[in-house]
Design goal:
This protein has one helix and no strands. The protein is 56% helix and 0% strand. It has a domain of 39 residues. With 62 residues, the protein is mainly α.
């Protein structure tokens, strides 16, 4: 028997398209909170990238 077989596996996070019918109400609410936090994080990164691009375009304008 391999030792990896005895190590508890960390549960996977949410996967887009996964079956949500098996989740409880509390789990669904927690998932919404997690996804909203992730959306905020993505929006912040996107804004930073847009700002960098705008600054580069302004620096190289003729």
């Amino acid at each position: 028997m391999d030792l990896d077989d005895l190590t508890p596996k960390k549960p996977k996070g949410h996967e887009i398209g996964q079956d949500l019918s098996t989740l409880s109400e509390a789990e669904l609410k927690a998932l919404i909170d997690t996804l909203q936090g992730e959306i905020g994080r993505i929006e912040a990164i996107l804004a930073a990238k847009e700002s960098s691009r705008s600054a580069a375009e302004a620096a190289f304008k003729r």
